[in-house]
Amino acid sequence: MSKKLNPLDLFDINALLGEEEQMVQQSVGRWVDERVLPVIGEAFDNHEFPMDLIPEMADLGLFGSSIQGYDCAGLSYTSYGLICQELERGDSGLRSFASVQSSLCMFPIYAFGSEEQKQKWLPPMSRGEVIGCFGLTEPHAGSDPASMKTHAKKDGDDWIINGSKMWITNGSIADLAIVWAQTDEGIQGFLIEKGMKGFDTELIKRKMSLRASVTSALFFDNVRVPDANRLPNVKGLKGPLSCLSNARYGISWGPIGSAQACLQEVIDYTEERVLFGRSLNENQIIQQKLADMSRRITTAQLLALRLSQLKESDDLHPTQISMAKWNNVRMAIDIARECRDMLGGAGITTEHVAIRHMLNLESVITYEGTETIHQLVVGRELTGKNAF
Ligand code: TGC
Ligand code: FAD
Fold first, then answer.
1. pLDDT for residue 295
2. pLDDT (tens digit, 9 = 90+) per residue, 3-16?
3. How many structural domains comprise the chain?
4. pLDDT at 204
5. Active-site residue 282, yes or no?
6. How many other C-beta atoms are found inside a 10 Å radius of the C-beta of residue 382?
7. Does residue 8 form part of some domain?
8. Is the pLDDT of residue 1 over 70?
9. How many Å apart are CA 116 and CA 40, to the nearest integer?
10. Which residues lie with the beta carbon below 6 Å from any ligand 1 atom?
11. Same domain, 179 and 295
């Protein structure tokens, strides 16, 4: 009999990883098993983000992990992808926290900030002492951020910011908000600090998705911000879109973890569950469903790995990221829903992981560009015609 394959890694993607990447995956995976899985179901039930896990994530080097210097780990992008995958195997809320901190807050400071801004903010952010949020979406401008109304007007050496942002991950717990606003010279990014006069946040309640994550609205009422808090090295929509490219890259990896968690659960459940005098997994239809999930996870893993090769070689096109985010989130949400069904009535409680992942993925398929937006990006590439 040939060797037994790993059901969550049927094509042995692990063997294609470097030694450092294998170590990163193992250590984050072990931490998720020991520290996240025992508490995350209850955190989701209670609509709470487990704040006490932030210092532990920082100790593991998970914030700004691909940044060189500034007390960051300087790991490969593949390692960043694996971090996202392992965190999301625990819960999309944890991966969201890390995505926002790393790709949407630390990355723009690193890529577009002054040296002073980098020295001031990146080290404490890598230690999890400063929590960031990223304000792009507005109540009337989600898929179309170019139509944002939030604006910043120059006043001497300062800027006066007015407007609001909606659906902002980490908003109410953030010490620093990266806020994108219209100016006379196009869209620019501003570092808005907690406590600045006229800056307020409001927690969004009653979410049925990403319950173990903080989502908020941000309000700016004549907030006076010094020019030293403006990101000096980027103007226009390409600033926030570059941050999104990095975060979407991570999200192409993350939901593989959600799907793996759901598949493992139903592999175990269908072995134990006896119906019509035999284990559920002795039925052909059940095996066909399990095999099909494994096929879809494997193709998503290969897509993510190729994406990371393109990213490591600095040859990644935004359309490729769009296709990977679309495919891999769609793969995971479909698998989570099927796993929920295969658990029968037991699948409707958070005693089992499938419904939590299924509900979380409803946010993941919407944020960072909805599925439709990513399909239209690919469509534009194929036809040369903008259908937005
Ligand atoms: P378009 O004309 O295509 O481009 C405008 C400028 O941006 C450049 N660009 C990019 N640059 C870097 N990376 C990318 N991915 C880029 N895509 C475009 C482009 O070259 C151009 O530069 P320039 O110099 O010529 O001006 O822009 P468009 O208005 O046609 O955009 C179209 C569209 C729909 C794709 C874009 O607006 C879009 O992506 N919309 C979706 C918005 C979105 O994803 N929002 C996400 C908010 S953040 C969030 O959800 C966080 S969730 C966090 C969590 O909890 O994990
Ligand atoms: P809309 O843009 O109003 O879209 C509504 C529907 O119309 C969607 O189905 C969309 O696909 C479809 N649609 C849009 N345009 C077209 C078109 N041209 N053709 C056909 N269909 C179209 N934003 C941030 O800035 N920072 C954050 O940290 C952040 N965190 C989030 C956390 C959560 C939990 C959620 C749910 C959202 C978060 N967002 C964040 C916002 C997120 O990016 C937006 O919700 C998303 O971009 C979609 O925007 P919208 O909600 O305004 O939907």
1. 98
2. 899 999 999 999 99
3. 3
4. 98
5. no
6. 8
7. no
8. no
9. 38
10. 96, 99-100, 134, 136-137, 143-146, 169, 236-238, 241-242, 244-245, 318, 367-369, 373, 377, 388
11. no
